[in-house]
Design goal:
alpha/beta; iron-sulfur; about 30% helix; six-stranded mixed β-sheet; globular; Molybdopterin oxidoreductase family protein
């Protein structure tokens, strides 16, 4: 039996694993044994999700054939099995009819951060070349877009970690802002644990006492939505106490003088704004400045806000002022969440981007990519709407009428999900490609089954910017096709087949050419190099280039070669508590589940460990409302309501409730207010009320 080295299908660690064929448990389905591999990222470790990933390959819920509505155009009629020919015929007819009546932009696609680089690239090309539409975005807009925007404008490049994950073990002080890797990506904790064992000190900023915070030297618990004020307050202290690195600022940065208003964030004021004691502010800055090398790592807790870009910028300002960025075992980074959250946004899934992290509105970029694709630059559409803006206009005049959703479950994962469901219902035609019948697929006119991670070839780019190989360990079921094949076949039916291929290697070779010279330059990366070197770090402009594990050692990829300070000021969250909705809801991950839960909620071992969502509530808040541990509680916002079981914990602020987003419910409450720069929704703060649910609702 031949073993295949590949990677986990879940988070951005992309842990290495080995799949070995074995006798199947279900007749007609392949069997496989999964074991962790000694890959540089996970070094033989896996989390519970990774260990159980193969359980989904032969799951009884798996989609094995296309599905169509029994009565075309009637979504109340049941879905039935269909041939690929029938499914394609319905899709192509819907595309033609819509574009003939409403124009090219009436048809669009919504992608996912779990798609391989090849599929993300091909999807962006398909929308712009085969559909000639501007309507494309993806769920990564809900993930790292704010940190990416801030990094691009301050550092000239967006790569989640500008250094290998292993460098974290060498840092003496690590500040984690809105990050809970102990639950979100457990194998990464070995690097924090190693550092701690060697005397490193870790500081966690989070309104909850998470599993990550439990092991920290210091835990700061701000009011959700005040991280920017917290960062500016620390910068104020660093300047006033003389802890900034003046030589670094002078030689490696520009714009520091623009921060003179940082003096407005004196510690006493910041304590009132955030709830974090002044002594903790001072201790944090002192450690970052004097107990180095030091790192500041942000994640979604700091970024999923209506001011998320400015918040990430504030932490970048602090890191630059302390002279951390570009020094060994030091710097600023952001922790990517989705499996290919990094690569997925580099090669054309975002509404404003072309491959290589090029801008769609840049004439030089358009000319370069159009030449690779063999089309006229003038035929490429202009930038379209961001993810939630596109969703919010579905079915309306000027909005998308026919939508194809790939590897995303927006009925659960998008904010203000009741509105999202309403918009999906208004579509003239919805196509969903997925492994299982997701909550989004339940509204579809056509559902297409797709190959899983172990049944396909391609590349992924992990949180370090390391491009890795996803390798086929077994074939997909007989009637299941890869997304690349579907894209190619549909392009052919639309009369644009000559521009597409379903060979992952051929697509990657084209991607290399399209990305050449761009910010995310993959030109020197080959499948063979990835295999031989256990991944290659971009940028890698030619095959003789070693790749770039560490950025910023000598300069920054900006026009001046210097990093940029940009003044940012705190502003209140888009929605504040009031007498009707007096508390703050924040959302996040649990260890056992992933994203919308469409996959992990089907794994028995994970459901046994965590069978339902629980609202985390402080005992003082629970007592005020007569709530006991295990009671059902109703959370209500201006947009909707959700009923969850209560979990009492003194590790959360008494004015804050935490709810996981892996089940339907939490995002019925969240606020779709968008960051003006990144178009990221404000997932992490909304105003809610809470009450014990009526006894009749209890199980």
């Amino acid at each position: 039996m031949t073993a295949t080295q590949t990677h986990c299908p879940y988070c951005a660690l992309q842990c290495g694993m080995t799949l070995t064929p074995e006798i199947p448990l279900r007749p007609g389905m392949p069997g496989v044994r999964l074991e962790p591999a000694e890959f540089p990222v996970n070094r033989g470790g896996l989390c519970a999700k990774g260990f159980t990933a193969a359980d989904l390959l032969d799951h009884t819920d798996r989609l094995l054939t296309p599905l169509v509505r029994k009565e075309p155009g009637n979504r109340e009629s049941p879905l039935r099995e269909a041939s690929w020919e029938e499914a394609y015929e319905r899709i192509v007819t819907a595309i033609h009819d819509s574009q003939q009546e409403y124009g090219p932009d009436s048809v669009g696609a919504f992608g996912g951060g779990g798609l391989t680089n090849e599929k993300a690239y091909a999807l962006g090309k398909f929308v712009r070349v085969a559909l000639r539409s501007s309507a494309i975005d993806y769920n990564g807009r809900f993930c790292m877009s704010s940190a990416a925007t801030a990094a691009n404008r301050a550092l000239g490049i967006d790569r989640g970690l500008p250094f290998p994950l292993a460098d974290v073990a060498q840092a003496r002080t690590v500040l984690l802002v809105g990050a809970n890797p102990a639950d979100a990506m457990p194998p990464s904790m070995q690097y924090l644990d190693t550092g701690r064992a060697d005397g490193a000190k870790h500081i966690v900023i989070d309104p909850r006492r998470t599993n990550t915070a439990n092991g920290a030297y210091l835990h700061l618990q701000p009011l959700p939505g005040t991280d920017l004020a917290l960062a500016n307050g620390m910068l104020h202290i660093a300047i006033r106490e003389g802890w900034i690195d003046e030589d670094y600022i002078k030689t490696r940065t520009e714009g520091f003088d623009s921060l003179n208003k940082a003096n407005a964030y004196w510690p006493e004021r910041v304590e009132r704004m955030t709830g974090v004691p002044e002594r903790q502010l001072r201790e944090t800055v002192r450690m970052l400045a004097t107990e180095g090398p030091s790192m500041i790592l942000t994640a979604r807790g700091a970024e999923q806000h209506s001011n998320g870009t400015d918040t990430a910028q504030a932490w970048l300002n602090l890191a630059l002022a302390l002279g951390l960025v570009g020094k060994p075992f030091s710097g600023y980074g952001t922790i990517t969440g989705q499996g290919n959250g990094q690569g997925g946004r580099e090669h054309g899934q975002k509404a404003d981007q072309l491959p290589g992290y090029r801008k769609l509105d840049d004439p030089v970029a358009r000319a370069h990519v159009a030449a690779v694709w063999g089309v006229d630059p003038d035929d490429l559409p202009r930038p379209g709407l961001s993810a939630y803006e596109m969703i919010d206009r579905l079915g309306s005049d000027g909005g998308v009428k026919v939508l194809w959703v790939l590897a995303s479950n927006i009925a659960v994962s998008a904010p203000h999900s009741n509105n999202v469901v309403d918009k999906l219902r208004r579509l003239d035609f919805l196509v969903v490609s997925d492994i299982f019948l997701s909550e989004t697929a339940e509204f579809a006119d056509v559902v297409l089954p797709t190959a899983q991670w172990a049944e396909e070839e391609g590349t992924m780019t992990n949180l370090e910017g390391r491009v890795i190989r996803r390798k086929m360990a077994l074939p997909p079921p007989p009637l299941v096709k890869s997304d690349l094949t579907v894209l190619t076949e549909l392009a052919g039916l639309l009369g644009r087949g000559e521009f597409f291929t379903d060979s992952p290697r051929a697509v990657f070779e084209e991607l290399r050419r399209a990305s050449a010279g761009g910010i995310a330059d993959y030109a020197g990366i080959t499948y063979e190099r990835i295999e031989a070197e256990q991944g290659v770090f971009w940028p890698c402009p030619d095959e003789n280039h070693p790749g770039t594990p560490r950025l910023f050692g000598e300069s920054f990829p900006t026009a001046s070669g210097r990093a940029r300070f940009i003044r940012v000021d705190h502003r209140d969250a888009a929605e504040l508590p009031d007498t009707t909705f007096p508390y703050v809801l924040t959302t996040g991950r649990n260890m056992q589940q992933y994203q919308s839960g469409n996959q992990t909620r089907r794994v028995r071992a994970l459901n046994v460990a965590l069978p339902e969502p629980r609202a985390e509530i402080h005992p003082d808040l629970a007592r005020r409302h007569g709530i006991a541990d295990g009671d059902l509680v109703e959370l209500r916002s201006r947009r909707g309501a959700a009923t969850l079981r209560a979990r009492l914990s003194d590790g959360i602020r008494p004015d804050t409730v935490f709810a996981p987003f892996h089940w339907p419910g939490a995002n019925a409450l969240t606020n779709p207010a968008l960051d003006p720069h990144s178009r990221m929704p404000a997932f992490k703060v909304c105003a809610i009320s809470i009450e014990r649910a009526p006894d009749s609702l209890e199980n």
